[in-house]
Amino acid sequence: AQNKGPHKCGGVLRNYSGRISTYEGPKTDCIWTILAKPGSRVFVAIPYLNLACGKEYVEVQDGLPGAGNYGKLCSGIGLTYQSSSNALSIKYSRTAGHSASSFDIYYYGDS
Description:
Mean pLDDT: 91
Pfam family, one: CUB
CATH topology: Jelly Rolls
Structural class: mainly beta
Keywords: Acetylation, Disulfide bond, Fertilization, Heparin-binding, Secreted
Subcellular location: Secreted
Family: Belongs to the spermadhesin family.
Largest sheet: 5 strands, mixed
Number of helices: 0
CATH architecture: Sandwich
Domain CUB: 9-110
Low-confidence stretches: none
């Protein structure tokens, strides 16, 4: 079940809205790319983030993977981001041997 639904490690998400959740498998880096319709923007909300700082982080990238980002996040409440185009990427990274902390990231595109 680790490669299905919101618990998958990375991939391209084309749904209008959805959720990215904790990945607990063996990979240490996961990148999700959210693609909205051309001309639309992507909105991301992280209601609560409490990762083990120094051992794991989430990075919100404004565009395709490798685009400019808003920094490495390991904690926060009520975090929101908006893309400048129809693409936004989320990277999750953790140190090998460190078990993943739980998180939920919600996204949606404007129509």
